[in-house]
Design brief:
Blueprint lengths: L7 H6 L1 E2 L5 E3 L13 H8 L2 E2 L2 H10 L5
Antiparallel strand pairs: 1-2, 2-3
């Protein structure tokens, strides 16, 4: 079998934790931040876990768990 290619766009957006979970960033923290509260911006800065319903799809894009 030939080697599988990693989807580079996914590799830049997701990280795999030591326990095998997938981490992602929150959306809505790029621009237009003036009207958002500090509490909301602080929450959006933290990492989130990929939902179990999307997990298989994301793992398919990262065949070697980059």
């Amino acid at each position: 079998m030939p080697k599988l290619k990693t989807r580079r766009a996914a590799a830049k957006r997701f990280r795999i934790t030591g326990t095998g979970k997938l981490q992602r960033r929150h959306a809505f923290r790029n621009h237009l931040l003036g009207h958002k509260s500090s509490k909301r911006k602080r929450f959006l800065a933290t990492s989130a876990t990929v939902d179990p319903t999307d997990r298989d799809r994301v793992q398919g894009m990262l065949p070697y768990g980059s």
